[in-house]
Amino acid sequence: MSDAVVIGAGPAGLMAAEVLAQAGVKVTLCDAKPSVGRKFLMAGKSGLNLTKAEPPEAFDSAFRENAEWLAPMIGAFDPQAVQDWAQGLGQELFTGTTGRVFPVAMKASPLLRAWLERLRSLGVVFNTRWRWTGWDGAALCFDTPHGVQKLSAKATILALGGASWKRLGSDGAWADMLAARGVPLSPFAAANAGVAVQWTPFMDRHLGGALKNIGLRSGPYVSRGEATLSLGGLEGGGVYTVSRGVREGHPLVLDLLPDQTDLAVAEKLSKPRGKATLTSHLRKTLKLDAVKIAVLQEMCMPLPSDPQSLAKLIKSVVIRHNGLRPMDEAISTAGGVTKEAVDAALMLKAVPDTYVVGEMLDWEAPTGGYLITGCLATGAWAGHHAAARLKA
Predict the structure, then answer these.
(1) Residue 73: which CATH number?
(2) Least crowded by CB within 10 Å, which of 3, 64, 317, 332?
């Protein structure tokens, strides 16, 4: 018997365990993998973007239709609180020019090590290689290296992630178990995903290259940044931000020169070309690099000769694609436990004293610090409420 069992040792689960333990609650934390925080560590490989320093209204708006629902939770553990927490674990931070906040170490591993040391010092018990398989009456059941194990708890926090990156532990297998208990769910869908493009052999030499400083839009979703050409299509932060629009069926449109107007581009293209090829003319007059020219030619051939039409194309390259890359490759997923399924404390209405946090909940946000902050905030919120209910 534990006061509380937390299932899933990603950021949301670890934060819930920390809050509970700090409140004096006896916590057991179970995870199916041999080690904890695997997706968290993967997120830090290219620089751990913990949060984003911006006004609350701007930060909350990134969660779009779920902004009002999540606002109290994020308000209780906001970007400044995330920074204070990380610094309390001995992590020196810096804020980039866009407001994104990173550890100076740029990795997740030093922060995770310090975090686990704190949790162990608070008495949190870790059970790894314990895969949750559902309930037997009121008991929680686990497949473990030592056979089936059962735990009883006064409070359970489910922090099992979404349905992407199965090899790191987020496989969405929990959905059937919750549905069987009458918990309302939304179907999973890829979020912050790459776009699938079937390149012609002409593009082979450009794969791995980047479209730098471009504008991207898909329906109401707009971003500014980079896109990398991969064998499977387009990847990168700029693409992920607008991938929801692609998922919803909107065209994906690139602006190769977002700092210049159509008129300015047309005026430059109107300069005498002489005997230069069109490719040379684009390079000399507009400073377009080889990757941008290649994508323009791949998607828009034959290119028009008049400057106005060509300028319009350069400012709005429609990408022919096959939808999003597979969901298991996505950084995150939409769908999961609906907000109608939980009360204000994130406790399941259908399963009393069981809370749901992190990506198990049906919300999505772009990369850039929003995802991790949302997971930490919901974990802390449920942890505080569970601790208060236990004490009451």
Answers:
(1) 3.50.50.60
(2) 64
Residues 338 and 385 reside in one and the same domain? yes
CB contact at 8 A, 109 and 44: yes
CA–CA gap between residue 101 and residue 93 (Å, rounded): 7
Q: How many CA atoms lie within 13 A of 243 on its CB side?
A: 34
DSSP 151-190: E-EEEEEE----SS-GGGT---THHHHHHHTT--EEEEEE
Residue 281, domain extent: 195-318
Say whether both 163 and 181 belong to one domain. yes
End residue of a domain, out of 287, 318, 349: 318
Digit-coded pLDDT (tens) for 359-380: 999 999 999 999 999 999 999 9
Whether omega before 302 lies within 30 degrees of 0, making that bond cis, reads yes
Does residue 270 contact residue 310 with C-beta atoms inside 8 Å?
A: no
Q: What is the pLDDT of residues 8-42, one digit of tens each?
A: 999 999 999 999 999 999 999 999 999 999 989 98
